[in-house]
Write a structure and sequence with these properties.
The two termini are 29 Å apart. Helix 2 runs antiparallel to helix 3. The radius of gyration is 24 Å and the shape is flat. Strands 1, 2, 3, 4, 5, 6, 7 and 8 form an eight-stranded mixed β-sheet that branches. The chain has a five-stranded mixed β-sheet with strand order 11-10-9-12-13, sandwiched between helices. A three-stranded antiparallel β-sheet has the order 14-15-16, with no helix packed on it. By secondary structure, the chain is α+β, with helices and mostly antiparallel strands. 35% of the residues lie in helices and 29% in strands. Bound molecules: zinc ion. The site of zinc ion has 8 residues, from loops.
């Protein structure tokens, strides 16, 4: 049976505040990621890896030790709590054979790379077809068996919440702009306002990121449970154009796009990790699946073909294209 190795990369965010390297990273470090060896100490006493590795994962004491931080002094090390992510990967049969260190947004980051031997999932005849749009139109997915659509739905974050947050942000930014023009932005009031803006921005992006993360793991689990193959259409440029055609302000369009690409990356990462076969495929949403003519969009995202009169919901068109392709 074929076995191949899959990797999963830990998001750097968790180490952001806990790793202090003291100085601004050297310029040569920027833009490159340096692989570091790891040494693993398991609860049963097994030790694997290079004992002199700069990163030690100690599962006996549940800490991650980063050695030789800053200077090459023997006892100069930083201890971090063991991350839940690492423990979860271990339970799934993964191993952290190496880490990477590099610069992200001007700060030094440590990223852990989990590796796992997987048995590729034997497809069961099910397919999960996923059409990724902006968050405004969400992620439409269909579970298909043979040429039968078992389920079809669209997942979207809370648009009301997003739009409310966004308009509050715009209001605050406008106020800040006025203060700035008056030269009052460095006052206590100005600085308070700036902090408020930053906080709100962060909250909005966190909401979208969390939504993306939850959706990713839900869809990945679905794919595993049904042993589907996965087909993804992520024509994000097209959805961006579509959003702007709807006369949404470019600021809000940006919000609707934030973390969409991240969603696709996360999703693919998880599919690989679990050995779910996947492919990217262009599935049209504006071309008639019956006759190939360009379709016209009517209100409430209904697409109508003026050549053969076929009409259907826009999110459904990619599914029909998929079915046609698999016939
Ligand atoms: Zn047609």
């Amino acid at each position: 049976m074929l076995r191949y190795v899959q990797h999963q990369l830990f998001s750097w965010r968790e180490f952001k505040r806990s790793l202090v390297f003291g100085a601004t990273p050297k310029r040569w470090l920027a833009g490159t990621w340096i692989p570091l060896k790891t040494y693993r100490i398991f609860p049963d006493g097994r030790r694997i890896g290079d004992p002199n590795a700069p990163v030690v994962l100690d599962f006996m004491r549940n800490v991650i030790r980063v050695r030789q931080v800053c200077r090459n002094q023997p006892r100069y090390s930083v201890e971090l709590p063991m991350s839940r992510w690492v423990l979860e990967r271990m339970i799934e049969g993964g191993d952290i054979k190496f880490a990477k260190v590099g610069v992200r947004r001007g700060k030094l980051y440590l990223a852990l790379v989990a590796e796992r031997k997987v048995q590729p999932i034997q497809p069961s005849g099910y397919a999960l077809v996923i059409d990724v749009n902006s968050w405004k139109h969400g992620v439409a997915w269909a579970l298909i068996k043979g040429d039968r659509i078992v389920k079809w739905t669209r997942e979207r974050p809370d648009l009301g919440y997003i739009e409310r947050m966004y308009s509050e942000l715009v209001g605050l930014e406008r106020k800040y702009g006025i203060l700035k023009r008056l030269g009052l932005h460095e006052t206590l009031e100005g600085r308070k306002l700036w902090l408020k803006i930053k906080h709100k921005r962060r909250k909005l992006h966190k909401y979208l990121r969390d939504f993306a993360q939850r959706l990713t793991s839900r869809l990945a689990k679905k794919a595993m449970k049904r042993r589907t193959r996965v087909v993804i259409d992520d024509m994000l440029d097209e959805s961006r154009r579509e959003l702007l055609e709807e006369r949404i302000s470019s600021g809000l369009a940006k919000v609707y796009f934030s973390s969409v690409r991240h969603f696709v990356e996360l999703f693919v990462n998880q599919l690989r990790w679990y050995g779910v076969p996947y492919e990217f495929k262009r599935l049209y949403s504006t071309i008639c699946p019956r006759c190939g003519a360009k379709m016209k969009e009517l209100p409430s995202r209904i697409m109508k073909c003026e050549n053969c009169n076929f009409s259907v919901h826009r999110d459904f068109v990619p599914v029909l294209w998929f079915l046609q392709g698999s016939r």
